[in-house]
Specification:
Layout: H1 12-76, H2 88-101, E1 105-111, E2 117-122, H3 127-132, E3 141-147, E4 150-156, E5 162-169, H4 178-186, E6 190-191, E7 195-197, E8 202-210, E9 217-223, H5 225-232, E10 243-245, E11 251-254, H6 274-279
Antiparallel strand pairs: 1-2, 1-9, 2-3, 3-4, 4-5, 6-8, 7-8, 8-9, 10-11
Helix pairs in contact: 1-5
């Protein structure tokens, strides 16, 4: 008697083929999953090593800057020239030499126990400094003097020749400043926490130290420019950015650069009369 093949019945051959296809699909799925897992693990491990190395480099760079500033402060604080008010030009020449040798120092200054103040600023450090101090392109240095309730700004060229000066009233007194009082109280080299320099709109730190056990305190402002340049030199992904924060969350350095987004305002050409030119 002949047996009829029922419709829908799965043959042994079909079963073998289906098992083979299922096994192949499962094997492929597991292999792809393992490959993804290990690839992700390797990528994560490589990125961790890369950013750990960068972090260690940032720490070394930051500490090197601190040590360099402290060394300069200790050296300058032993210079007797800084104690004599009659030797101001020599003091400015000393400041100038140090600023030229340390391009990431924004300014060097001394405060005296009578509240007076003398500073030399390197305006070439930043366009923001030039704008804030209203300098001319030929200006290289700005001298700030504070005495008897008056603050004077003197604008100097590279050779320390005075181009112009202006004076304004002020209530600034170095004896009220933290960098002065802390150095006087400790007698040691004092270092501020990083903070935003108003004239530069850039983070920096102040190092201060008493000059030869006197009432004169030396101060130096250091920007984080060297640290930012170091960050920019790290060989990381082109899509990555690096940031350095303080413990309180304040940003002190990053690889981001501000870019102007506004077009220059068109200014029509016009001629000034002699009287108008004299006013300008």
């Amino acid at each position: 008697m002949r047996m009829l093949k029922l419709p829908g019945r799965i043959t042994i051959r079909m079963t073998v083929v289906m098992i083979f296809v299922a096994a192949t699909a499962l094997t492929a799925t597991v292999a792809i999953g393992l490959q993804y897992y290990f690839s992700e693990s390797l990528a994560t491990s490589a990125a961790t090593r890369l950013y750990t190395a960068a972090s260690s480099g940032v720490t070394r760079q930051f500490n090197a800057g601190l040590n360099r500033s402290a060394s300069v402060a200790r050296l300058l604080s032993q210079n007797p020239v800084l104690l004599d008010r009659e030797r101001e030009q020599e003091q400015l020449q000393v400041f100038r030499s140090v600023l030229k040798a340390n391009p990431h120092l924004y300014g060097i200054y001394i405060g005296r126990e009578d509240g007076s103040f003398l500073e030399l600023i390197n305006v070439q450090l930043s366009p923001q400094a030039r704008s804030a101090l209203t300098t001319m392109p030929t200006d290289r240095w700005v001298v700030v003097r504070v005495e008897d309730g008056q603050r004077q700004f003197a604008y100097l060229d590279e050779a320390m020749n005075v181009r112009a000066s202006r004076t304004e009233p002020t209530d600034y007194d170095v004896r009220d400043r933290d960098w002065y009082s802390r150095a006087r109280a400790s007698g040691e080299t004092e270092l501020s926490e990083p903070y935003l320099f108003a004239q530069l709109n850039q983070a920096g730190q102040t190092t201060s130290r008493v000059v030869r056990n006197s009432g004169v305190v030396l101060g130096m402002d250091r920007t984080m420019q060297s640290l930012e340049e170091f960050l920019l030199g790290q060989k990381l992904s082109s899509l990555s950015e690096m940031f350095v924060f303080q413990q309180d969350g304040a940003l002190i350095a990053s690889t981001l650069k501000e870019e102007g987004t506004m077009d220059a305002i068109p200014v029509p050409e016009f001629e000034l009369s002699q009287a108008e030119q004299e006013i300008v």
